[in-house]
Fold:
Amino acid sequence: MNDNRAILAALAAVLFAVGLAGCDATEASGDACESTADCSAGELCDDADKKCVCPPEGCGANNGDGITRFGFSGDGSVSLADLGTVQVTGDGSDPLVVAVPSGARSVAVVVEGAGSNIILAHKITSPSGDVVFDYNNDVNTNRTDPNDGLYIVLIPSNPDVELAAGDWKLEFLTDGPDFSATVTGVFKTAASSSKKIDVNLFFVGVDGLDAAKAEADPGFQAILSNVSDVFGAAGIGFGQMSYIDITGDDADRLGIVDSVDGPSSELAQLFKLSADRSNRALNFFFVADIGGGDAGFSLLGLAGGVPGPPSLHGTGRSGIAINMADFIGAEGDALATVSADLELIMAHEAGHYMGLYHTTERNGLALDDGGILGQDPLSDTPLCPDSADTSGNMVLSADECADHGGGNLMFWSPKTNGRALTSKQGSVINASAVIK
Amino acid sequence: MKRTLVALIVVALATMASVASAQHDPTIDPGVRAGVVELLGSFEVEPTQKDWDKIGPGAADVLVEIAADPRQQPTMRSRAVSSLVHVESDQHELLQNLLANTDTPVIVRRKAMNVLAIKHPEAAIVALEPFVNSDQPRLRESAIRALGLVARPEARVLLQERLKVEPRKYLKDEIKVSLDRIDAAAP
Structure:
């Protein structure tokens, strides 16, 4: 009897492990394509046949949910689990139970299916019954912000929230029609061993800068080194770098990102170009411009979310876009200035991707009804008070906040070139499943 | 030798004139200038109409100054150009000049197309026509998108003509999107 139990347990363990690693047996769609963007997540467009095929690593368990699954390698400190489906309505959803193993450092709950509608956690309850997020009652200890398309809840998004082992309950809300959400969990089951962030660097139609040049250019290497140093305050640095050129129509079409909102935006299409990656890494996409709205206001950088889906490639949120417009053609002193700006933008957006919010928002806590208000949930980050708005323009500038966190990496404006990280910001980053 | 010298002098004078024209206008309130620079200075947040209304009419002069200043970084200039949609000011000549000047960074020219289309649709038709057939796909794409913002029959004609000869699939798709947009805006 005991032997049978042992055999069943071993079989269950094997099946569980296979489940976590993702089933690579799914086949490519074979759909006609002009570029990889025309294919489903996990597939590549074969330039010769103009058909969607699986990359050498396999399509992953490309089950149509938009996520490229892959077997995690390395130190085994991260696992991926299918958490099933949950029906989401405008009134909420039944609780989704997420079983957190003992010793886990974080879980990123990835929710798909909202389309262009908004989805948000309704309530998050710990195994002991503590409510760490409640949309209706303004409980924001474990802050999470609404998203369209792919939605990611990070627990903890604040080290004051203990990720206790046991059954966590998550409920969700939508502003759109009822839908069945598919949920995946990315568990960081142990502390990082190497404390390295591997990085995929995609070069997408930036004049004068491609993968080969970036890899050989001392100036660009210095930028990467300095970005890595910013995270040194959290004991983390960049690890392996992969340099990837995006060419052809994809580069022409997405080298300038003209739309950033929604699951069919060019930004989402850009991030889906990560579908052929199978490493545990951050994806940076260097583009010639990122424009939002009809007038195309240029954004300096944009992360796929706060947090982005950690090491899940091929989704419309699987990356960080970096605007290289100022870098193109810059020389001498101008290049030095632009390079310093670029370091800051990359580090700031990577901070978002790994779960950090702005320490102070542009319109403070209450300067402007309808403006951008708020602060991060961390108790050790400096908040710039509304009273610092000495100009009275309802915007907390970097100068006005110089003594109140204007020098933090996650301040809303880059004007002070702030690169400081607090201890709790370091804890959030260290808990990210991106860190190896 | 003499011709070279004359050419150098002409270039130097043109550069000096350009820089001089881009000097800060002393009549602009420094507080207004600082406010505009703050709004244009975020990582990833576009200022709203309300933000510009708070600064008041003086914002337009600062935006024009930044947009025209070749010493400013391209993203700053392009942000200033885009933001002109939010202020009460007729800047179609500035926008047309930015568009026509091949020394202007491409992203600034692209924003000029958008703002022309949104704020000055009549002038936009004439200004955008050559760019719909540009040999630079990025300018062509921007002109196609901008024409989609101009809800006029002339824009539709230009796009339909380009659709017949456009070799790139993604630009053909952009033309169709713009045509749909014009149709949707039709009374």
Summary: Confidence is low (pLDDT under 50) at residues 1-26, 60-75 of chain A. The CA atoms of residues 60 and 70 of chain A lie 5 Å apart. Chain A touches chain B through 45 residues (CB under 8 Å).
